[in-house]
Design brief:
By secondary structure, this protein is an alpha+beta fold. The chain has helices spanning 52-58, 64-70, 79-98, 103-106, 181-201, 253-265, 300-310, 382-385, 400-404, 418-430, 436-452; strands at 35-42, 46-50, 100-102, 117-126, 133-137, 155-159, 179-180, 206-207, 210-220, 227-235, 269-270, 277-283, 286-291, 294-296, 317-322, 325-326, 338-340, 346-347, 355-358, 366-370. A hairpin with a 2-residue loop joins β13 and β14 (294-296). The longest helix has 21 residues, at 181-201.
Length: 455
Amino acid sequence: MPLAEVSPPAEESPTPVSPGPLLRRVADLKTRNVQPETVRRLAHARVVFADYERLRQDFPQLRDESLERSHAELQSLAGSERRLAVRRIIDAWLLRNVAFISEKQARQEAVNTRIEVTAETATAFRPPHYGRALVYSLAESRPHAADDPEAGEGLLDVKGTGVGPKAEPHFGPHGDGLMKLYDAFREVAFQKLMDFVFRAEGVPYTTVPLYAAIDAGFDCKHTVRPLPAGLLVRRAHRRPVYRWGTKEPDSPAVPLELKIEFLLRRYGITSVSPATTIDIAERGGGTHIKYGFFNVTYSPEKVERIKGLTGFKGEPQQFDGVCMQFTRDVEADPPRAEIIDLGGYFVRERFENPLVSLVACRIMRLGEIIGQTDARFTQPEERFVKAYRFDARGGPKFKSPLLAGVDPSRPEPQMTDVRVLARDLAFEYRAGRLDGQGVLDTLDAYVEDVTSRWH
């Protein structure tokens, strides 16, 4: 039976509880310079899927006893009928509280198609360094929230909400202020993979819970074709307070980050992305240095210093900057690792470049550099990494339309990466060929297919 046609299970699966604190008011962020801003209601946003059990754990107003007081009709429902009714109520609650876009984003069409908004506004809160995310307070964001029986207290952190009042949307890394819907799906898949690794290894690491993926109802402009825009709803959390924008060399996050990176690399997973690679090459009589997507220029003295630190001998060289983001508890005593922002994680079959710990107060953020001769340098184990291979690369055929339950005769690429699968799912959902449950079932099937071959 196609996964899209599978009915929900009779009982909800229990959701593991993350130990992070539950924040109720904006003041609970305990962060300076949190800026309020006006946001506009998205006219066509839809919940694709949500972690209903997690939401009910974290928000008492969504539990049975509370919902029955405001929705008397639930008392006469049972089984799957009641469960679906509760999900519809929670979907409406999510949209009521977070289906907004920043005013600056709504006023332009440079990086997105026209964004249809209503006259309704709300107040969202932007902590420092929240380039495309906002925090919503159930009690403080919407006018007359006190009249909503399901409002209560609580914070929701949402990614893909548009640029701030002083920024201009532009094409570039996170420059458009948006999140593609397929990136939200991809982040959910990586969370499931990483949580599986942490449970299997018996280590006390967690990821920040993801509550829901929302179709924002408009498209991100792209060179090939428009891509559906989305919102990713996360548990609100406190970010570390780093004086220089990133962790100091003596931060407890430095060794912990490397430890987790090497653990994940056994399974082929890495936090290194194109945005955190460093390239050094001799060209045209000079030394050219690139950090991520940008060429950088230094004085001749500093260039020589960089060469010395990296051991550069003239041949083109690339370094992988580890980029793991934590909540503020990483600075606690003892430090606790709760990981956020999984959109920059990738799967690799092998690691060739030296790994760099990126820290503040160092030229090019160059902390410790760990090469392949270092005993800590970890390569993926074949029994783990081969689980990602599909079709001609040595694994089973994993065709997204077939798995999703849509027409298998339609030509689609064979899956070799969850990014391709997630992109297909976003198009299938937007076209109405797959519902939200089918999207989630497909992502779960992908994770199960991979992890079942890790044993």
